[in-house]
Amino acid sequence: MIRDLTDAEARAALPLKWGRAPEGTIPAWVAEMDYAPAPAISAAVNAAAGRGMLGYPPFDHPMVGGLEEAFRGFAERHWGWEVPAGSTTLTGDVITGMRLVLEHLCPPGPVVVPLPCYPPFRTIVALAGREAAYVELDPDAQTATLDLAAVRAHFEAGARTLLLCSPHNPWGRVLTRPELEAVRDLAAEFGARVVADEIHAPLVLPGSTFVPYLSVDPDGIVVTSHTKSFNTPGLKAAQIITLRPDDTEAIRSIPFEANHGYTGLGMVAGAAAWRDSDLWLLTLRQRLDVLREDLADLLATHLPQARMRPLEATYLAWLDLRAYGVADPAAAGLDHGVMAAAGHDYHPGLEGHLRLNIATSADRLAEIVRRLGVALA
Ligand SMILES: Cc1ncc(COP(=O)(O)O)c(C=O)c1O
């Protein structure tokens, strides 16, 4: 059910991921998958385009195609979470939504950003005119967890917002209920806001359980979208989810000119993803489960000194390659026909790491790791 794209198909379908890679280089950087879209999404988008549904979406936060309804059903079926009706506000994409939330819902003061982080987190904090207060993950820690003592120290120094990524890219971790409760309690102590990016939530792999942040902390704010799990990032329709009426009112009062990036086709795609694509998603997670095992075997063969914590969610593996003594393994990989993401983009100053996108065919993954092995030998 998960169909691998050929190289030619991938070049046509994924112009950013594949277009940036020189001929002969295998791209394994940006978070897109080398798979054909879920059939229900293609069918819904094709039908909508066939009907000529290419106009502006209405202004007043409509749920065209039942996007919110579909998400509520998904959250109930997959996570047992009852999302109240009327808690979704549309925005173009998750990164825009996070920035708008920072600008309009979060108290003044520095913003705590755990590192390594998805690089745009740092950019949006700057765009929102805020100072970032970093909490660094010890690269030698057995388990990637949030250093709450460091978060507390930032709150004591005046920070009032925490950007959480749950499940975490690039840690690959699924934060547990006790961890989320501890975050909630700490934020409550300081009157701080927690903004959770849950875009990878449907990509929790067998063995781990996703806990929606808002099911633990109704004062939190979640931004999510169908686009990562269903490989639809070109179809813009992300969701800001707020349970506090004052938040919902404030976020919906943002002038249209500042929040206009969502599209009708994105809403159609989102509804088809959340409502009609469970089987495809299940099959995807089974495929990724096999690929993460393949990755462990391939690393043992070609990069035996690589270190990797268990990949609990996402298809983005965070590899510690410091044992090879190469400061920028992604640059070395590029010289040998693999385009991975440089670790220092996720954690400035951190050497010897890279983030590898494994959502490709088993053959390509094997070739990627073999080439990286040659690059670092
Ligand atoms: C954690 C995280 N948030 C947000 C995004 C981007 O989402 P969007 O394209 O909706 O801005 C990504 C993309 O890889 C991501 O990994």
Secondary-structure element string? HHEHHEHEHEHEHEHEEHHHEHEEEH
User: How large a portion of the residues is in β-strands, by DSSP E?
Assistant: 5-15%
Strand tally: 12
The best one-word shape is: globular
Structural summary, described in words:
The protein is an alpha/beta fold. The protein has two domains: 7-30 and 278-376, Aspartate Aminotransferase, domain 1 (Alpha-Beta Complex); 44-276, Type I PLP-dependent aspartate aminotransferase-like (Major domain) (Aspartate Aminotransferase, domain 2, 3-Layer(aba) Sandwich), CATH 3.40.640. 40% of the residues lie in helices and 13% in strands. It has helices at residues 7-13, 15-19, 39-50, 67-79, 94-105, 120-127, 148-156, 177-190, 213-216, 245-252, 264-276, 278-302, 329-335, 362-376; strands at 26-27, 88-91, 111-115, 132-136, 161-165, 193-197, 221-224, 238-242, 316-320, 338-339, 341-342, 353-357. The strands form three sheets. It has a seven-stranded mixed beta sheet with strand order 2-8-7-6-5-3-4, with helices on both faces. Strands 9-12-11 form a three-stranded antiparallel beta sheet, covered by helices on one side. Strand 5, helix 8 and strand 6 form a beta-alpha-beta unit. Helix 13 (329-335) crosses helix 14 (362-376). The longest helix is centred in the last third of the chain and has 25 residues, at 278-302. The radius of gyration is 20 Å and the shape is globular.
